[in-house]
Amino acid sequence: MSIMQIAETLLERNAAPDWIMRIGIRRLLAQRLREEAGATIEEEMRHKMEMIQSLNSKEIAIEQEKANEQHYEVPSELFLYTLGKRMKYSSCYYESADASLDAAEESMLRLYCQRAGLKDGMSVLDLGCGWGSLTLYIAENYPQCKITGLSNSWTQRKFIEEEARKKKLHNVKIVTADISQVERIEGSHTFDMLFSIEMFEHMKNYGALLRKMSKWMHKQSRLFVHIFCHNKYIYDFETEGATNWMGRYFFTGGTMGSDDVLHFFQDDVKVVDRWRVDGRHYAQTSEHWLQNLDRNISKIRPILRSTYGEEATKWEAYWRTFYLAVAELFGYNDGQEWHVAHYLFAKR
Questions:
Q1: Do 124 and 284 meet the contact criterion of CB atoms below 8 Å apart?
Q2: SUPFAM superfamilies per the record (predicted)?
């Protein structure tokens, strides 16, 4: 039995200590960097352009059902016990080292609105709206805005609509649809502001996706994108092989873009501003998710049993490992390898 097989056996029994898992994850990350690095800068650029061409040749998205199965149709209660108060399932922003997860959620949501130039009264489209963290934040803080959230998950739609009802918010509308298939958003042709927070990671053909988004924009519209990425490499989340655990169980059909990847897809939109968010913010976010999971494990285990049946113990270990892996990925090299990129686009 190989070392990787032994590690996976221990993992499935929820018997692998965190310190061993962290060492193993760091070694896999170092291996990934070695595999992606070309012998020369010419080779690296050639490979990057091949990846860009490959994305252009594919459908907008593949394995959408897997993404739902792995994340978005999992009972919301699991995430209520692990995420922060806003249910933000993406990187938060820590204005101080001792900031709480709830405060970091608020900070990143506020940063989105500032960087996008959102004004009260705008019509807003939140693409891939998750559990409504941004949709509900805008609805509360920009009460004259009308927000449409697009999600391909009925579980998420039900959660957001219930939260809006509790908070007496009447400026929120949730549409359930697959963005790779939908052409017209119910209720409006164009929007003043579009947001996409950690949705591109599940996509492939960025050119076709941005072309579709541009049809929902008028000349003054802006599109704000938050995408996690590597500093310079583009690669697919693969599913085969012992080392591709993340792709197999949590990001089937996904893509790790490079920091500059969206610059290659400006036929229909153009970049008007750019920012980077140090990877340590995401690392701290996932450390907080892990702490919440461990703190609430007695409440989470019944949810895991009802969701995964006899595999509940294995999936408890998988969710813990997922949060560990996210923390180690974005904390690698002090947050300077993998991080978050923010883009602001205008329509061409």
A1: no
A2: S-adenosyl-L-methionine-dependent methyltransferases
Using the 8-state DSSP alphabet, how is residue 168 labeled?
T
- The one-letter code for the residue type at 81 is Y
Two structure tokens written together for 270: 């153009």
Strand 217-230 and strand 338-347: pairing? antiparallel
Residue 185, pLDDT score: 84
DSSP sequence for 255-285: EEEETTGGGG--SSEEEEEEEEE-HHHHHHH
Q: What's phi and psi for 278, nearest 5 deg?
A: -45, 135
Nearest to 293 by CA among 316, 326, 266: 316
Residue with tokens 């310190």: 19
Question: For residue 293, how many other CB atoms are within 10 A of its CB?
Answer: 19
Alpha-carbon span 215 to 74, nearest angstrom: 32
C-alpha distances out from residue 153 to 205, 247, 252, Å = 21, 20, 17
pLDDT confidence of residue 237: 81
pLDDT digits (tens, 9 = 90+) for 117-158: 999 999 999 999 999 999 999 999 999 999 999 998 888 999
Q: What is the DSSP annotation of 40-61?
A: SHHHHHHHHHHHHHHHHTS-SB
Give the chain's residues under pLDDT 50.
Answer: 1-3, 6, 66-68, 70-72
Fold observed for domain 16-347: Rossmann fold (3.40.50)
Report the run of H or E that residue 159 belongs to, with start and end. helix 154-166
pLDDT digits (tens, 9 = 90+) for 311-346: 899 889 989 999 999 999 999 999 999 999 999 999
